[in-house]
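To: structure desk
From: M.T.
Subject: fold request, one chain
Message: Could you run this one when you get a chance? Sequence is below, nothing fancy, just the single chain.
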Amino acid sequence: MLSLSIGFNPDLWTLESVCRRTVENKRGKVDIYIFYFAVQFLPFHVWDYEPVIVYESEDEVTCLYDALHYYIGCSKKPELVISYPWRSFYEGSTEEKVELDKMPQRELTDELIKVWRSRDHNPFSVDEIFLEDPWKALDDFRKGERVKFGEEQERKIISLELPEYRDVEALYNNLSLALETNEIIRGFKWPGVLAEYVLSSSIEKESLQSFLARKCIAERVVLEMENLARIEEELRSIYSKARETS
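Reply: Done. Structure tokens follow.
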């Protein structure tokens, strides 16, 4: 069962509905959640779809979620915090728990997905494989062959001038740019995990190697330790520069 808490003022929640479907086969059960919001605050646009997928088999539980710009984050347990103002997720919990069973519920039907995909502005862009064959999507992620839920197609309406979030926006934008253009960082197969390392502030508490080990990624990393150290150095540079400008 998914456990979700809020990393911001709950008055800013603005959730429209929790849309959910369950897929079962011989490998186990998969609960697919789409947290549907009327607006997104950073960058500001209407309609926001945040995916969380919880896998349960006889010997493990795995959770995939949007860590940043649809880059996939992962956790060994379905206990997440939803952050503000960009509404990505990271592993953990806060005192502000979300009672999912008391949230507006809606079945994630094919008809609903069709409506979402047909929108001119910010259509739903989670790849079909996550909805129809989520175990295959998980296998692809573990091999480093699938790093995003899909390509977001949002069209930004306006940038909000919120002084209290300028440092957050700088970090968000700089990290997004680094994941896409930094040659060292781009060589890592699981960019969503790197995004969570920074945005969850785990970078303040532990090394990247330790963080990857907790995520069960370290055993799959085919990188020299020197490269891993350079990746961490680049991420820390991005983090510190955003803090200097705040």
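Reply (cont.): The longest helix spans residues 225-244. Let me know if you need anything else for the meeting.
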